Amino acid sequence: MGRAESARRTNKGRLIVVEGIDGSGKSTQLHLLDKWLRSLGLNVFFTEWNSSDVVKEITSKGKKKALLTPTTFSLLHATDFADRYERNISPLLEAGYFVLADRYIYTALARDVVRGCTSMWVRKVYSFAAVPDIAFYFRVPPDVAMDRILEGRPKLKYYEAGMDLNLSNDEYESYRIFQARIVEQYESMVTKDRFAVIDGTLDIEEQQTLMRRHVSKLLALPKVRATIEVSRRQEGGHP
Amino acid sequence: MTQQVEAHPLRFYGDGISYLKRLESKGSLIVIEGPDGSGRSSQIDLITSHLEAAGHAVLTTGLKRSELIGAGILEAKHKLPLGKKTLALFYAADFADQLEHKIIPALHAGYVVLADRYIYTLMARSSVRGIPRSWSHDLFGFAVKPDLVFYLDVPPEELFHRVFQKYGSLDYYESGADMGLSDDLHESFILYQRGIAKEFKLMESKYGITRIDGGRGIPEVNQELQKRIDGYLRSSR
Question: How many Cα atoms sit within 13 Å of B188 on the Cβ side?
Answer without folding.
Answer: 16
